[in-house]
Amino acid sequence: MASKYNLHAVPMGRVNANRNASNLTADARARARNRSHVATSKMRAKLSAVQVIQGDDSSWLHVIGDKIVARFASVGEAVAAL
Hints:
Elements: H1 26-48, E1 50-54, E2 60-64, E3 67-72, H2 75-80
Antiparallel strand pairs: 1-2, 2-3
């Protein structure tokens, strides 16, 4: 029996480069880099305040200050959520 393939679920043809990317000005690229840097810095600042500790019931917790903000079953899940 021949295999059937769903032709609508797979990409068809060649992948083309984004031809509109060269239309951006140097100023627009600089603003985009700056937005990305600011967002990354804010995220790192938030994550630096998070502590991963083990609770009394053997669960792993994300703690900021004195507040528990998340609870995980394993340390791997807790670290991956950072």
